[in-house]
Amino acid sequence: MPVSAEDLAAALRLPIGSVADIEPMGMREGSPVRVTIRNSGAQSRVVLARPIAGSERATNHAAVLEALARAGYPHAPRLLAATSDLVIEEWIEGASALAVVPPVGSAEAAVEALAALHDLPLREGLDWGRAPAEVLPAAEAPLHRLGFAASERDPAREPLAAAHEALLGGSFGFAHRNATAANVLLAPGRAWLAGFGDAGFGPQLFDVAAFLLTSGLNAAARMALAARYAQARGLARDTAGLVDLAGVVWGLNELLGLPRRQVELLGDGAGAEALRTAALRIERGVREAAGEHPVALAIRSALWPEYHRGDG
After folding, report:
1. CA angle 226, 246, 214 (to 5 degrees)
2. What pLDDT score was predicted for residue 54?
3. Alpha carbon of 89 to those of 34, 56, 121: distances in Å?
């Protein structure tokens, strides 16, 4: 159901006729819209409206934004109104990290925003009744779907199982759970997180890995940012290596889910292009070591032996 000016005015308690422009931000049903509001005698302002339409993700997004506001978290949009049909939040004047080269200081601000999010004592969102092993279950990845031959898959089986065990021992708690570059807005020296529809209990290092892999940064920059995240949270120095290992596991699973997401985006040219950009960055980043974790090295050596002999 499309967002109407009347519904927006009612949710924000505005005079009729205040909503001047409604711009869809995607082609799919339920995509958010950018709304320009002009009150008589006042400067115009812009908000973002998300239709709920029975969506668990939209409802979860609203609940998490409200919890973040109560916690005083400064790196997320402010929730302005919520009804049974709409979630309305402030418009952030930043660009998606998927769309721009990170401005000066913004990637550092992004990992610090993630560190601050992960330190919040929140029990909001999804999956709080589940154990880490249920949220991150052990399952053999069908790597043949990514074109890996048996001679590559077999040597990778044991280190991938070891990666799962190592990541289960990592940091779990309140997490964004979809912190790709598309959901990180950047401006010089600043960053905001958006799109909290999947937020809840989960492996926090996957948030860091998701941002770093999809941001287009090179391996050295990703390693430095992972170390900055660990320092911001007061975690052990080997956390940076665990972030790289999380990136290998998260990235392979993202690439395996790519065909399904491409089908979901049929007819949405901008969305499909963003997905292609993210996939190319993930594939490159998973290959390039951004840490020194021995299990990550073993996985890369198995799956890309020529690359890691220096020929790739």
Report:
1. 70
2. 66
3. 10, 17, 23
How far apart (Å, rounded) are the C-alpha atoms in residues 118 and 238?
A: 18
| d(C-alpha 71, C-alpha 51), whole Å | 25
CB-based contacts of 275, cutoff 8 Å, min separation 6: 258, 261, 262, 265
State the Rg of the chain over Cα.
20
Task: Show the domains of the chain with their CATH numbers.
Answer: 5-90 (3.30.200), 95-309 (3.90.1200)
- Could you count the other beta carbons within 10 Å of the beta carbon of residue 18? 18
CA-CA distance, 177 to 124, in Å (whole number)?
A: 13
**Residue 73 tokens, joined:** 């978290």
Place of tokens 């993700």: 57
C-alpha–C-alpha distance, residues 120 and 137, integer Å: 25
The proportion of the chain whose per-residue pLDDT surpasses 70, expressed as a percent, equals 96
Q: What angle, 0 to 180 degrees and rounded to 10, lies between the N-to-C axes of helices 239-256 and 150-168?
A: 130
Compute, in degrees rounded to 10, the torsion defined by CA atoms 69, 39, 191, 116: -10
Residue 229 scores a pLDDT above 60: yes
- Give Dmax over CA atoms of the chain in angstroms: 71
Residue 277 CB contacts under 8 Å (≥ 6 apart), including other chains:
98
Q: With cut-offs at 50, 70 and 90, classify the pLDDT of residue 82.
A: confident
Distance CA 227, CA 242 (A): 10
Count of C-beta atoms within a 10 Å radius of residue 66:
14
Torsion region of 288: left, alpha or beta (phi above 0 gives left; psi -120 to 50 gives alpha):
beta
Tens digits of residue pLDDT in 52-73: 866 788 889 999 999 999 999 9
pLDDT in tens, 112-130: 999 999 999 999 999 999 9
